[in-house]
TrEMBL record:
Coiled coil: none annotated. Pfam families: Glrx-like (PF05768). It comes from the Bacteria. This is Thioredoxin family protein. InterPro entries: Glutaredoxin-like, Glutaredoxin-like_YDR286C, Thioredoxin-like_sf. It comes from Leifsonia xyli subsp. cynodontis DSM 46306.
């Protein structure tokens, strides 16, 4: 059974066109989840404001984490993201 809620973190920085693309994909996928799907909390983190995230992810942004686990970096596939948000942990 899928969890009742998910936390999706989008890690990027201002002026990053891939981050803008990822943000659009995340928004569309979350908005299109079926009724009864887990609630998804979307958090955005700016690597320019967080030295730890900068050190860890500077070469990979945008990065999408689901429940703290890396799901994707650079490009976000909508179908793969949707599946991941709906599946069991």
């Amino acid at each position: 059974m899928p969890p009742a809620s998910r936390v999706l973190a989008l890690i990027g920085k201002p002026g990053c066109h891939l981050c803008d693309d990822a943000r659009r994909v995340v928004a569309a996928v979350v908005a299109g989840l079926p009724e009864g799907a887990p609630a998804v909390t979307v958090e955005e983190h700016d690597i320019l404001r967080d030295p730890v995230l900068h050190e860890k992810y500077v070469e990979e942004i945008p990065v999408v984490l689901i429940d703290g686990r890396t799901h994707a970096f650079w490009r976000v596939d909508p179908a793969r993201l949707r599946t991941a948000l709906l599946e069991d942990r």
